Amino acid sequence: MLRAFLSILLCLGLATALSAQDVAPDSAPRASTGGAQTLQDIMARQRGEPVDDSFRRAATGNPGHAADIAAQLGTLGGASDAEVFRALRYGTADVTVTSRGPAAGVLIQDGGMWWLAFRQGPLATYGAWLLGGTLALLALFYLLRGKIRIEGEKTGRTITRFSGFERFGHWLFAGSFLVLGATGLISLFGRTVLIPLFGHQGFSTLAVASKWVHNNIAWAFMAGLVIVILNWTLHNIPNRHDLIWLSKAGGLFSKGVHPPARKFNAGQKMIFWGCVVLGLSISVSGLSLLFPFELPMFAKTFTVLNDLGAPGWVGMAPLPEQLAAQEEMQFAQIWHAMVAFAFMAMIFAHIYLGSIGMEGAFDAMGSGEVDLQWAREHHGLWVQEVGTKQAAAGTAPPAE
């Protein structure tokens, strides 16, 4: 009898609970957790879905609930320690600081955790694999192909490949990029790689110096980029000869194959436009990092992308359009580093072909003069153009 009675009560209780849940499922979604996040919140966050955390953001205490100052608990105020730290975390606390900087009142930057996790995880991991993989492929190519030699007999005569101003712009751009790449890698990998070698104090000195060099050499990089663009844009406009060059892979994989090319072949044009696009992008994000409160770039970019519906193309929710200065810097730093990795991988290939990969190539940017036979094999159409101009000017063309 007792067992039957308890069974009836249990069924009635379950029915009542289910009925209440069906009638008002959202009336008190966190009543069972005391206002904390639910299992559904946790699972949604693990799946990468957006979670409404307004129930936490708003739980920052109420000064009106504080006891009278003369009462026993009157000095404790109307907010617990957890509520105070929550208000600091979400930027709603009334903070007074002596510094007048735009972000000085931000004591806890909650959004920084995703940036730190991405920077230490995927960014560093995939970036290292990209650079290491590029170097490994270049080493393999060198073992299989060897150095690309001048196949004809050298003439002993030279032709001016690049003027002094062209070489100045190239080396200003290239030299500053190498310094920026090295100091940037120190910033990203220094804690993992260099602290075990030099200790914390030694790395601290190196890190501070690297940051100063990185921030200031950036101006030389941007100046070199401008010179490169002014010098060579017209020479790097694609033409029909580039299709022939690409169809034969520039003769890089075959001996005795020399597709016609003007001053720059299709491969060099791809490097040039890569430098322009990546160089401009990394410069803009670098300026945003140097002047984060004057030159924010991502909030406006996200607004444009949302207007185009771009996030939906890849199944993403709309991007945030209101960003604090710290959030702008986090997005800018991530983008800056991603572009830098792609840039360095491309430049590795350029350095290889311009040095040990191809005989006579370094002379073009070294002295500016290249052997006439090298020029005929790699840039035959350009040699003809130079000869035509010299003949029209009454000077001696590069003859046999």
Automatic annotation (TrEMBL):
InterPro entries: Cyt_b561_bac/Ni-Hgenase, Di-haem_cyt_TM, FDH_cytochrome_b556_subunit, Formate_DH_gsu. SUPFAM superfamilies: Transmembrane di-heme cytochromes. The keyword Transit peptide does not apply. GO terms for molecular function: electron transfer activity; formate dehydrogenase (NAD+) activity; formate dehydrogenase (quinone) activity; metal ion binding. Pfam families: Ni_hydr_CYTB. The chain crosses the membrane at residues 123-144, 171-197, 217-234, 271-293, 334-353. The keyword Membrane applies. It is found in: Cell membrane. Gene3D superfamilies: Transmembrane di-heme cytochromes, Chain C. Residues 161-365 form the Cytochrome b561 bacterial/Ni-hydrogenase domain. Its cofactor is heme. It is a multi-pass membrane protein. Keywords: Cell membrane, Electron transport, Heme, Iron, Membrane, Metal-binding, Signal, Transmembrane, Transmembrane helix, Transport. GO terms for cellular component: formate dehydrogenase complex; plasma membrane. Residues 1-20 form the signal peptide. GO terms for biological process: anaerobic respiration; formate oxidation; respiratory electron transport chain. It comes from the Bacteria. Belongs to the formate dehydrogenase gamma subunit family. This is Formate dehydrogenase gamma subunit.
